[in-house]
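Purpose: get a first structural picture of the assembly so the mutagenesis plan has something to point at.
Setup: two entries, given in the order below. No constraints added.
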Amino acid sequence: QVQLVQSGAEVKKPGASVKVSCKASGYTFTKYAMYWVRQAPGQRPEWMGRIYTGNGNAEYSEKFQGRVTITRDTSASTAYMELSGLRSEDTAVYFCARGTYCGVTSCSFDYWGQGTLVTVSS
Amino acid sequence: DIQMTQSPSTLSASVGDRVTITCRASQSISSWLAWYQQKPGTAPTLLIYDVSKLTSGVPSRFSGSGSGTEFTLTISSLQPDDFATYFCQQYDTYGTFGQGTKVEIK
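Result (structure tokens, whole complex):
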């Protein structure tokens, strides 16, 4: 069965960076793009970016451009999301999600990781 | 950016009620619209994609309709397991979500 398993919760100080991993199993990793979505407490989910796992090309939301880097390791079927210059407003649960049913430039997400809580606090 | 606006933000209903949630896009998104259900402390679950296609395992009491800029999610007979928050998502251009509709017990 398809599973996306993320790394554990993180507590970071303002200005630091965080790197979250997402290990995929149960399907061919390189056949689906992997997306990263975050959700602050009580807020709507927010699209951060995606990586085409086959060729490694990544694309980012304008909001996070310059602060976020998405990479993948095909040998480990794992995607990574690194966010730098952390501030208190970045406190949120970060999800990876598999893109399956796709439109023109993006997809809906049929499988999600369990989420990783990132807390930014001095 | 395409903005997604849901209404209502909160909906109070009883088991057996017919429930309708509306989602409006700031510009046309063709049929690239999905609906998710989310329960506290868990990831969203995909219910419907391409406006009206049910994901495998989703009960037939859920249905979706619409096109262009206006879309609806309908639950024909609300069940106890359906009390949750629902989000729409456009995936025409990147992927923005609506602000959510919390369906609570009346």
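The radius of gyration of chain A is 14 Å.
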